[in-house]
Amino acid sequence: MAASGSSRTMESRTGRTKQRYNSKGERLVAGVVPLTESKDYVLLIQSTKRKGWVLPKGGWELDEECTEAAAREAWEEAGITVHIDYDLGDIEDLRPPKKHQTKEKERSLYRFYEATVLTEHENWPEREKRERRWFTFADAHELLKERPELRTALERSTMKR
Questions:
Q1: Distant-in-sequence, close-in-space partners of 58: CB < 8 Å, separation ≥ 6
Q2: CA atoms of 144 and 52, how far apart (whole Å)
Q3: Which of 24, 33, 125, 140 has the most CB atoms around its CB within 10 Å?
Q4: Pair 111, 44: CB distance under 8 Å
Q5: Terminal Cα-to-Cα distance of the chain (whole angstroms)
Q6: Residue 50's pLDDT is what?
Q7: H helices within the chain, ranges in order?
Protein backbone atom coordinates (compact mmCIF):
# COMPACT_ATOMS: atom_id res chain seq x y z
CA MET A 1 0.00 0.00 0.00
CA ALA A 2 1.16 3.53 -0.64
CA ALA A 3 2.59 6.04 1.77
CA SER A 4 0.37 8.72 3.20
CA GLY A 5 0.70 12.43 3.24
CA SER A 6 0.27 13.41 -0.40
CA SER A 7 -2.34 16.03 0.47
CA ARG A 8 -1.42 17.06 4.02
CA THR A 9 -2.88 20.17 5.54
CA MET A 10 -2.09 21.94 8.78
CA GLU A 11 -5.77 21.93 9.76
CA SER A 12 -7.53 18.96 11.38
CA ARG A 13 -10.90 17.93 10.07
CA THR A 14 -13.66 18.51 12.61
CA GLY A 15 -17.35 17.74 12.92
CA ARG A 16 -19.35 14.72 11.92
CA THR A 17 -21.22 15.86 8.80
CA LYS A 18 -19.10 13.62 6.52
CA GLN A 19 -18.83 10.80 9.06
CA ARG A 20 -19.47 7.20 7.94
CA TYR A 21 -21.79 4.89 9.91
CA ASN A 22 -22.64 1.25 9.29
CA SER A 23 -26.11 -0.31 9.14
CA LYS A 24 -26.09 -0.81 12.96
CA GLY A 25 -25.52 2.92 13.50
CA GLU A 26 -21.94 2.44 14.66
CA ARG A 27 -19.51 5.26 13.84
CA LEU A 28 -16.70 3.93 11.64
CA VAL A 29 -13.26 4.83 13.00
CA ALA A 30 -9.92 4.33 11.22
CA GLY A 31 -6.55 4.21 12.94
CA VAL A 32 -2.96 3.06 12.81
CA VAL A 33 -0.55 1.11 14.97
CA PRO A 34 2.53 3.20 14.02
CA LEU A 35 5.74 1.19 14.33
CA THR A 36 9.43 1.77 13.76
CA GLU A 37 10.83 -0.10 10.77
CA SER A 38 12.45 -2.58 13.20
CA LYS A 39 9.05 -3.11 14.89
CA ASP A 40 10.68 -2.53 18.30
CA TYR A 41 8.63 0.58 19.18
CA VAL A 42 5.10 1.93 18.76
CA LEU A 43 4.22 5.62 18.73
CA LEU A 44 1.43 6.64 21.12
CA ILE A 45 -0.15 10.06 21.51
CA GLN A 46 -1.80 11.82 24.42
CA SER A 47 -5.60 11.71 24.36
CA THR A 48 -7.27 15.12 24.29
CA LYS A 49 -10.57 13.97 25.87
CA ARG A 50 -9.49 11.32 28.34
CA LYS A 51 -6.22 11.32 30.16
CA GLY A 52 -3.65 8.84 29.00
CA TRP A 53 -2.06 7.48 25.86
CA VAL A 54 -3.83 6.28 22.69
CA LEU A 55 -3.17 5.19 19.12
CA PRO A 56 -3.85 7.74 16.36
CA LYS A 57 -7.43 7.24 15.16
CA GLY A 58 -10.53 9.10 14.12
CA GLY A 59 -13.64 9.17 11.99
CA TRP A 60 -13.61 7.62 8.54
CA GLU A 61 -15.26 10.17 6.27
CA LEU A 62 -17.38 9.81 3.14
CA ASP A 63 -14.82 11.33 0.76
CA GLU A 64 -11.95 8.94 1.54
CA GLU A 65 -10.96 5.29 1.63
CA CYS A 66 -10.41 3.74 5.06
CA THR A 67 -6.61 3.59 4.56
CA GLU A 68 -6.64 7.28 3.63
CA ALA A 69 -8.59 8.11 6.79
CA ALA A 70 -6.10 6.14 8.92
CA ALA A 71 -3.12 7.90 7.33
CA ARG A 72 -4.85 11.30 7.67
CA GLU A 73 -5.44 10.70 11.39
CA ALA A 74 -1.77 9.70 11.83
CA TRP A 75 -0.78 13.04 10.28
CA GLU A 76 -3.33 15.21 12.12
CA GLU A 77 -2.91 13.67 15.58
CA ALA A 78 0.71 12.45 15.62
CA GLY A 79 2.46 14.45 12.91
CA ILE A 80 3.73 11.37 11.12
CA THR A 81 3.68 10.14 7.57
CA VAL A 82 3.27 6.40 7.37
CA HIS A 83 3.33 3.47 5.00
CA ILE A 84 0.22 1.35 5.59
CA ASP A 85 1.54 -2.21 5.81
CA TYR A 86 -1.63 -4.20 6.36
CA ASP A 87 -5.15 -4.36 7.69
CA LEU A 88 -5.55 -5.50 11.32
CA GLY A 89 -9.31 -5.96 10.86
CA ASP A 90 -12.41 -4.68 12.61
CA ILE A 91 -12.45 -4.24 16.38
CA GLU A 92 -15.67 -3.65 18.28
CA ASP A 93 -16.08 -0.86 20.82
CA LEU A 94 -15.94 -2.65 24.18
CA ARG A 95 -15.71 0.35 26.48
CA PRO A 96 -18.40 0.73 29.12
CA PRO A 97 -20.59 3.86 28.90
CA LYS A 98 -19.32 6.92 30.77
CA LYS A 99 -20.55 7.17 34.37
CA HIS A 100 -22.56 10.40 34.17
CA GLN A 101 -23.98 9.92 30.73
CA THR A 102 -27.63 10.74 30.21
CA LYS A 103 -28.06 9.56 26.63
CA GLU A 104 -27.08 6.33 24.87
CA LYS A 105 -23.38 6.35 23.98
CA GLU A 106 -22.63 6.30 20.28
CA ARG A 107 -20.89 3.00 19.57
CA SER A 108 -17.90 2.78 17.24
CA LEU A 109 -16.45 0.11 15.01
CA TYR A 110 -12.68 0.44 14.69
CA ARG A 111 -10.52 -0.53 11.69
CA PHE A 112 -6.81 -0.42 12.43
CA TYR A 113 -3.83 -0.79 10.13
CA GLU A 114 -0.27 -1.67 11.00
CA ALA A 115 1.92 1.11 9.62
CA THR A 116 5.61 1.91 9.39
CA VAL A 117 6.49 5.48 10.33
CA LEU A 118 8.38 7.15 7.49
CA THR A 119 8.75 10.67 8.91
CA GLU A 120 8.10 12.47 12.20
CA HIS A 121 7.36 16.12 11.43
CA GLU A 122 8.16 19.00 13.80
CA ASN A 123 4.88 20.79 13.04
CA TRP A 124 1.50 19.14 12.60
CA PRO A 125 -2.16 20.11 13.05
CA GLU A 126 -2.61 18.92 16.67
CA ARG A 127 0.93 19.61 17.94
CA GLU A 128 -0.33 22.08 20.55
CA LYS A 129 -2.89 19.56 21.88
CA ARG A 130 -0.92 16.32 21.91
CA GLU A 131 2.37 14.85 23.01
CA ARG A 132 3.77 11.84 21.14
CA ARG A 133 6.20 9.25 22.46
CA TRP A 134 7.73 5.90 21.45
CA PHE A 135 7.07 2.88 23.68
CA THR A 136 8.02 -0.80 23.83
CA PHE A 137 5.24 -3.36 23.43
CA ALA A 138 5.12 -4.06 27.19
CA ASP A 139 4.89 -0.38 28.13
CA ALA A 140 2.30 0.41 25.45
CA HIS A 141 0.23 -2.65 26.39
CA GLU A 142 0.12 -1.45 30.01
CA LEU A 143 -0.70 2.15 29.03
CA LEU A 144 -3.62 0.97 26.86
CA LYS A 145 -5.19 -1.21 29.60
CA GLU A 146 -8.25 1.08 29.89
CA ARG A 147 -8.81 0.96 26.13
CA PRO A 148 -9.45 -2.68 25.10
CA GLU A 149 -10.07 -1.77 21.45
CA LEU A 150 -6.65 -0.11 21.20
CA ARG A 151 -4.95 -2.91 23.10
CA THR A 152 -6.46 -5.44 20.67
CA ALA A 153 -5.06 -3.51 17.70
CA LEU A 154 -1.61 -3.50 19.32
CA GLU A 155 -1.87 -7.24 20.03
CA ARG A 156 -2.83 -7.96 16.40
CA SER A 157 0.24 -6.14 15.12
CA THR A 158 3.56 -7.83 14.33
CA MET A 159 5.38 -5.60 16.82
CA LYS A 160 8.20 -7.37 18.69
CA ARG A 161 7.05 -8.54 22.12
A1: 13, 29, 30, 31, 69, 72, 73, 76, 77
A2: 8
A3: 33
A4: no
A5: 25
A6: 77
A7: 66-73, 137-143, 148-156
Instruction: Look at 137 and 12; give whichever has higher pLDDT.
Output: 137
Q: pLDDT tens digits for 129-149? A: 999 999 999 999 999 999 999
7, 21, 19: which is closest to 72 by C-alpha? 7
Rg (CA), the chain: 15
Which of 60, 32, 64 is CA-nearest to residue 132?
32
Instruction: Give the span between the Cα atoms of 149 and 153, in whole angstroms.
Output: 6
| Pairing status of strand 27-35 against strand 132-135 | unpaired
Judge whether 156 and 86 are in contact, CB under 8 Å: no
Q: Would you give the DSSP letter of residue 19?
A: B
